[in-house]
Amino acid sequence: MLTGVFIFSFVNILDKLLLEKYLKNYTLVLFKSIIWLVILCLIPFINFTIPTLNQLILIFAASFFGLIAFVPYTKAFEIEEASRLIPLLPLQSLFVLLLSAILINERLTLIQYTAFVLMLFGGVLLSIKKTKHVLKLSNGFWLMITAVFFWGLNLVIMKHIYNVAHYWSSFIIGVFISSVIGILFLLKKPIRKDFRKVLKTTSKQAKIMIISNGLLHIIALTFTMYALKQGIASLVSVLSSFQGLFVFILAIILSKFFPKVLKEDISKQVVLNKILAIILLLIGVYMLNMR
Description:
Elements: H1 2-21, H2 25-35, H3 53-68, H4 70-79, H5 82-85, H6 91-103, H7 110-127, E1 128-131, E2 134-137, H8 139-164, H9 167-183, H10 189-201, H11 204-229, H12 233-240, H13 243-257, H14 268-288
Helix pairs in contact: 1-11, 1-13, 2-4, 2-9, 2-10, 2-11, 3-8, 3-9, 4-8, 6-8, 7-14
């Protein structure tokens, strides 16, 4: 599982590099969607079964939310540092908890309420910026929160599906549906035009990065799903929260030693704020998973 989290961290950095240098947000989602079709290669190696109609409807809904989340996610990456955005991913656990409380009347404990406050404060601290002597939340924060909310919906629905249907069949179908939805972006003329432009004019190095990005993403997702298959959902949730920490470390290393590749603000005050925010988010995730 930790391998999947670490790979996801590299994917996040690649997302940022591709959006800064080569692709627009919708085009990145389109390329990911096409490459994700490689998941179909797993079908011969599993006991593939077709879920019921009701289950397929839920898988479609979850896949739609999971794919659409990439639109605000990639838009946020166009305007904000990766190390300010990815540490917000633990808020997904918070949304899952709140959705469970609303949809199935699950009662929250005092510890969970405390975790809610810590994680909210950590998220705000991570995203707050000083502009003309005024502190305000960055636009990237709201875009990322929107993405995290959609991913939370995806997780709530798929957790139910995995309890009642064949796990790997549901996973493959879900990824396939997400891919098809993403490929439908080609119906928009500006995206289709940009897609053709990338294929014709982008360097071989950039194309290798794009393909690697999509393949690494699906590999990381498969590692995560395999961990969930083993019935260690709480461990997956906790370890996934370290993705933001890994991205933060990678961003500092690249900004300090390879600024032409990735350049983020690594001034002392900014780095200390990010460290404190990440610690609060990690503590919050741990508290959410206490029994």
